Amino acid sequence: MTALDPASAADTGGLAALAGLEMAAGQLAPLITVLRAEQGRRKAGIAISRPAWKNLVFTGGPGTGKSRAAAATARLYRDLGLLRYGNLIEIPAIDLPDLLPGTPPRR
Amino acid sequence: MTEAVKVTGDLVMITGAHAWHDLPGHGQHILRCLYQILTEARKYHGDELAIILAGQAGPLRDMLHATPALAARFPPSSTSPATPPPSSPQSSAPWPPKPDSPSPPTPPTKPPPSWPTPSAAATGNARLAVQLLTQATTTQAHRITTSAQPCDPAALAAICAADIPASMPSPALTRDQYTGQYL
Description:
By secondary structure, chain A is mostly helical. Chain A contains three helices and two strands. Chain A has one domain. Chain B has seven helices and two strands, in the order αβαβααααα. Chain B has helices at 2-6, 28-44, 57-65, 68-71, 118-121, 125-146, 153-156, and strands at 11-15, 50-55. β1 of chain A pairs parallel with β2 of chain B, so a sheet runs across the interface.
């Protein structure tokens, strides 16, 4: 028998406690619940053949809390055991093409 | 790909990702590389890589819409931190019954799944199935994570009838939600 912790089921890694990010926490809650359930299955010894993806899209202009939300998400993923380190690494998109092979030259 | 290995175990946020839309080919080459990196991370690096694409909604939506394989790796709960969340993805109104189906003598406690509305039909059967499965999975996950009683392993992995939604997501909200985590 396996018990998942109901008290932590609605926890979104402190996201809801961050001022202005309560709505983001609400939007992420379904995904967090799915990931938490998956971890429960893993702990019960059930093989997960097609795990849920952990990737996200954050939209909004500067100062809307994307980085704060991302940092909280990284901590949550680490606490759930989904990521080993759970550091948040920010990479400017404009720098990424130079790191990838075969990128066409910029205009 | 080497760079992806270096950040395995961490959460990577790519800021200003909408800028790729201005690159040649609207950044499709980069999106294909991203798809490959995520696929290989799952296959060879224990699925210990998570990516957040951050930027302006319009260009990001267009880029992902043009790359459904990559979009499927970004669950539909993607968020805009400081803007109001969309209304519940579950429509409050039940679907209309089939035109040729007889009326039940008593109203059912849960409306049976039926044909989608005309606008929802435009999303296609495969998308409809993905949306149904995504909703059922989310409901099942909520059920087992909030259960006060311990679940046996079989229950942890089973979807029951109550998990299957009686109504479909609002079509107006689903452009970002076309793809799910099971494609």
